[in-house]
From TrEMBL:
Keyword hit for Membrane: no
Protein's name in the database: Cytochrome c
Organism: Haoranjiania flava
UniProt cross-references to InterPro entries, sorted A to Z: Cyt_c-like_dom, Cyt_c-like_dom_sf
Record-linked SUPFAM superfamilies: Cytochrome c (SSF46626)
Stretches assigned to the Cytochrome c domain: 75-203
Highest taxon above the source species: Bacteria
PANTHER family reported for this sequence: LIPOPROTEIN-RELATED, QUINOL:CYTOCHROME C OXIDOREDUCTASE MEMBRANE PROTEIN
Length: 223
């Protein structure tokens, strides 16, 4: 027993000495398993990506950094409730865009709390182009005085936008359309469907928010 006690004391003393030799600062950070993911390349929103570094062409993925804002085909996020069955059209084709008209909105009508939340998300993601009033006159256009030359779509007043089915609008938000990019990485599937509900409610004049459009426009312009 005495020998075991002596050995135990020696071991504890050795550990104490070793612990006391350091100051608790780790000098060696170790190795990063996947440095290209750990040290991600940053880019500014609404700024054209450097074509020498990035590409949206999957055929050039081996020579450049492939990035197109879209989720990996066939995957569903952990929080994803729905699978959109329509894939993105190939360049120059519009078959799937037309077919998306038949897809129904799986989300139920918005509650007042959901409407207010979608109003907030609309201002964050869409208002800078389409305007707080959905009139296509956001700060980037600003009546023709902004950096955008062409006016974004008037979601509230353009008959084509009012008549656009939910599925086709969802397709545009998910994959992008013309100069508008994809918002699949900014908004979940559920949020995108609810955002379509919000737009349709504003078009019909059946929604109301605690925020006033004038104040929202001023807030966006200030940013």
């Amino acid at each position: 027993m005495k020998k075991l006690s002596v050995i135990a004391v020696l071991i504890i003393s050795g550990i104490t000495i070793l612990a006391g030799c350091g100051n608790g600062i780790k000098r060696n950070p170790g190795k990063v398993y996947m440095p290209d993911m750990f040290y991600s390349r940053a880019y500014e929103t609404y700024v054209e990506m450097d074509s020498t570094l990035f590409t949206t062409d999957s055929n050039q993925a081996g020579r450049k950094i492939f990035y197109n804002n879209l989720p990996v085909r066939g995957t569903v996020s952990r929080a994803g409730e729905y699978i959109f069955p329509i894939p993105k059209d190939a360049i120059g084709d519009s078959t799937n865009y037309v077919a998306s008209k038949a897809v129904q909105n799986p989300e139920p009508p918005l509650t007042q709390a959901e409407y207010d939340q979608m109003h907030r998300l609309y201002l964050i993601n869409c208002g800078i182009c389409h305007g707080a009033k959905l009139d296509g006159n956001g700060p980037l256009y600003n009546g023709g005085n902004g950096p955008f030359i062409a006016a974004p779509k008037n979601l509230a007043g353009d008959p084509a936008m009012i008549a656009m089915p939910d599925g086709q609008m969802f397709y545009s938000v998910t994959y992008g359309k013309n100069t508008m990019g994809s918002y699949a990485s900014q908004l979940t599937t559920k949020q995108r469907w609810q955002l379509i509900h919000y737009i349709k409610m504003v078009q019909k004049g059946t929604g109301s928010s605690s925020s006033t459009p004038a104040a929202d426009s001023a807030a966006i312009a200030a940013k």
